[in-house]
Known about the structure:
Blueprint: E1 2-7, H1 16-29, E2 32-35, H2 48-65, E3 68-72, H3 84-95, E4 100-104, H4 110-113, E5 117-118, E6 124-125, H5 141-144, E7 148-151, H6 154-177
Parallel strand pairs: 1-2, 1-3, 3-4, 4-7
Antiparallel strand pairs: 5-6
Amino acid sequence: MKIIYLAGFDVFRKDARAWGEQLKALCAQHGFEGLYPLDKSAPQGLSGPDTAQWIYEANVALIRRADIVMANLDDFRGPGEPDSGTAFEVGFAVALQKPVWGYATDAGTLLDRTRVTTDTDGDARDARGYVVENFGLPMNLMLACSVKLVHGDAAACLVAMAEAEHRRNARRVQAQADGDPED
Length: 183
C-alpha cells in the first residue's frame, strides 16, 4: 500500500482534524494510506518558535516517510497563490524525487485569476506592478510543471492517482509476463 502525505492549507480549517480523517478515509477507499500533518500534536508547553520547529520537523519526517505527496494547490490567501507552506512541501518532495500530485478546483489560468493592468509594453502587471506569468498555466510554473495537476478536489485527485497506480501495476505485470525487467 502506497503512503501519501496530504499537503495543503486544510490544516488551517476550523474542522482541520475531522477534515484530515475524511482525507485519510478517501485515501483508504483508493488503496492508499494517508498521512495528515495533524495526526500528531506538538508537545505541550513549547514556546511559539519551538512549536513551529516541532511542526516543521514532524512534517518533513512525514514527507520523507511517504511514497507520494498529494497537495491542495487551491488559492489560499490570494488569487493564483497556493499556501506557501504547501509550496515548500511540494518542492521538498520533488527534491527527494517523490511523485507529487496536486489538485486545484479553479481551472482558469494565473493571468485569468489575477487582477491585472497592461503596461505600455503590453505586459500584464499585478496591483503591485509585478509582471504576471502568461504561460496558460493555473499557477506559477514552478508548481504547475513539478506536479501532476488534477482539476478538481481531493477525491478527483485520488481517483486519478489510483488509476495511474493501476496502469503502472498492469504494465509491471505485463513486463514480468513478457520476461522484461521491471520498470
